[in-house]
Structure formats: C-alpha cells, structure tokens
Amino acid sequence: MESDADSCLNRNCPWFKKCFYHRAKQNANTADVIITNHSLLFTDMKAENRLLPGYKHLIIDEAHHFEEVASKHLGIELHYYTLLNTLLWLFKDSRSGQLSNLRFRLQKHEEEGGEKLKGWIESIDRTCEMLVELKEEWDQLTELLYQLLSSRSDPSQSEGNQLVFPDQEGCASPGWEKLQGIEEKMHHLFNESLKRLDRLMSEIKEVQEVYDAQSALTDMGGTVKELTRHRDSLHYFMTMPDENTVYWMEAGTYNKSRSLQLNCVPIDVSSLLQQYFFDAKDSVIMTSATLSVGKSFDYTCEQLGLRSEEKDGKLKTVHCHHRSIIGNRLWLSFPGIFRPCGAGAGKRILSRSSFLHWPRLRWRRAAACWCCLRRTGC
Are 106 and 72 in contact (CB under 8 A)? Predict the structure, then answer.
C-alpha cells in the first residue's frame, strides 16, 4: 500500500497516529540534524517544502553528483504505462475505477437526490467516455512515436534491445504534424475532462458526509493532480518550447510502443540551484573527493552557477590533499595469495578473509582500491 501528499487524509485518517511516514516526519521536526540523500532534497523542493522541516544550513556530501540528480528530478519522464495506469485508475470499466466507485455511492441515494444528483451521474458518465477516448488516442500516439523511434534510432546511442532517439530532430520528421495533431486533440480532452472532474468534486465535497464520499474524493483529487501533471508533461515534450532542454525518446524492441518513454532534461540547472538552495540558505557546504579539476574549482563553480558568489567573496573553497585526510585511518588487509575469481567468489573472499576499516567519509576511496585489486589480480 502507498499514499502521497495529494491523497493523504492526514489527521482525518484513522491510522494517522500509527502511520510510519507521519511518525518519521514528526521525529524530523524535532531533530537537530537530518541525514537524507540528494533525491529527497529535490523531491521536497518540488513538493513546495512539505516533506522536510524548514532548514537554513545544508551540507552536501558527494556534491559532484548534485547537478546530475538535479537534472533528473527537475526534468520530465513520461512512460506509456504511467499515463495509462492513471487513466485506468480513474475509470477502467463500470465496476472498476474511482469514478465507478463514486457513481455507485451516488446511485444509492438516487431516489432522494433529485436533479442535482442525476446531473452528477450524467457528468461522471460523460467524463468516463472522454477518458476512454483519451486512452485510445494515447495508444495511437505512442504507436506512431515508436514507429518514428524504430526508423530513426541511432545505433551508437542504443544499448542492447533499447532504442534511443534524440527528439530535437523529431520536429523535422515526416508526419510530425500528424503527431502534434493527435496531442492537440488529447490536450483538449484532458482539459475538458479535468474541468468536469474539478467541478464535480467541488460540488460533491459540500455534501460528502451524506454520500460517505470523503475518502473517494480525496483519492480522486490525488489522481486528478497526477493526470494534470501528465497532460503538462506530454504537451511540453510534443511542443519542445525550451532550447535549454534536451528531448529524447527510448523504448525496448520487445514491448515496443508499450515500453515507450518520453524524456526532457534541462541542460543548465544552475539558476534553479541558485534560487532554491544557494540564495535561500544561510550556508551550504559541499564536499567531495572530485569537486576540483587540476586543483581548481572553476569547472564546478561554472556548472553550479557560483561564479558571482566567488567574485563577491561569498564563496570559500578549501582543497585538502588526500593524505592529510586519510593519514593512518585507512587499513586494508587482503589474503596473501590472490587468484582470479568471479564476482560471487570475490565477495566471499572479501567477507571471510579480509578486514577493512575506514571512516564513513572514506568509503569511496576504499571501495576504489578494492575494485582496482579485483581488476588487476594483484
């Protein structure tokens, strides 16, 4: 089971006091230090800081990955099944789906509900028809996109059975106007169905206790927000409005159009990092064994947009030689005789015949030493 910020009932949920997420969040609110990963920082940023408690000081370890993780989280990924499952979650058939469930609840009170309730049921029926039409258009669009991908895929960028196509060239491809026409039709269907759903939920919410529809409306509200995000992602990919973004498609040769994924990733995320982290926090400390190139931080400052801070004197850099950090703190003990071995056997040798000890921050170096020994057979 899972939930998200859009469908969570918070204190209205009967399991609120036992909920692992809310207990962890409460503990985080009273903590002096919170240890998390890069991904959760950006997830919190996209969730308008609703996941982590407010903070003014940030330490980023392995900071050479920070820009890459930012690009991934600030970009767009839309898989065929991601949109399909959202549509089916709203309506699959007359017995399955959130709209079918809501219709069933309303129908129980049809006799005393009057014309207003009949209007709600008619609105649900019309919305379901539009969602079915959306699914059909989505199947057609992904099939045509896959045909374009398979015919124009660059073998040098493909791995195994995975096809990859840099889609900046897509706009100049024959038939692209037809694809955009399908997306425009889908965009219209998205807008009409979302308007109906928003109006329906706002009207029923006023009398939700009468129809026992509180949980149904909460779940549906989360799905509607998800469908809105999918609409915007698809429209952004098909129109390609930003020159600072890389667009591409990828799919497998087995599931074909059903494995299609549309991707958009910003090339330069420095302005966003500046807005949400470097300017917003009192202090940000970044550490890594590979932040500098040739004992210079120029490349990192350029990528993260820290040139102005460097000129203003706000940015301070320190370069430490690795020996001064490690000193005598790293011990490596391996068997006296090494013989060629497979991955599984190597793990057994390491666990039974070896002893490694290092501070947590030096894990990367110790692991690198071990990989080197495995490759050379020393």
Answer: no
